[in-house]
Amino acid sequence: MERDLHRALTARAREADPEKPAEARVTYKELGLLVDPEGDRSGMSRPPFRTMFPALGNISAYEAERGRPLLSALVVAQGSGTPGPGFAEMAQHLGVNVRDPEEYWAEELAAVVRFWSTHDPVLHLDAEITRLEGELAALRAAVERLEGAV
Q1: Interval 36-63: pLDDT, tens
Q2: What Å distances lie between residue 104 and 18, 92, 146, CA to CA?
């Protein structure tokens, strides 16, 4: 299920126009029907989308771990055209300092579209390498602290 959601979101972002990121938005229901057109997966294509929310959180964590913008920024409520409060809460849980949830979401939406619509494998690989470099730096610092304590 998460893989299907991830694929649907990356496809949507790849096809989007970086000059018009708002056009890439997809409602919870539209996304649910993309991955579950028959409505067989309880909670995926019908409100209150109980199985979709945790899956979107996992997808966001996966993207954040790889140094990429949060794909779930594409997913919005039908009435407001914006994500629910869970989006900003999830970002904060991932370590993002969200001062203004609406501004953060708009910036993240634009970043998602820019990142995926470039079709640049080097950019995608660079995001992963940057994340790994950060982890290596943290490991080096930990080793240095341990060596200093001995």
Answers
A1: 887 766 566 666 677 788 899 999 999 9
A2: 17, 11, 38
Which residue is associated with the tokens 């914006």?
82
Cα distance between residue 90 and residue 70, in whole Å: 10
Q: Rounded to an integer, what distance in angstroms lies between the CA atom of residue 21 and that of residue 30?
A: 17
Please give the structure tokens belonging to residue 95: 């370590």
Instruction: Pull the structure tokens for residue 52.
Output: 């979709």
Tens digits of per-residue pLDDT, 65-124? Answer: 888 899 999 999 989 999 988 899 999 999 899 999 999 999 999 999 999 998 777 666
Residue 23 is given by DSSP the state G
HEC sequence for 34-94: HHCCCCCCCCCCCCCCCCHHHHHHHHHHHHHHCCCCCHHHHEECCCCCCCCHHHHHHHHHC
Q: Where are the domains of the chain?
A: 2-118, 120-150
Q: Which of 57, 64, 78, 81 is nearest to 134 (CA)?
A: 64
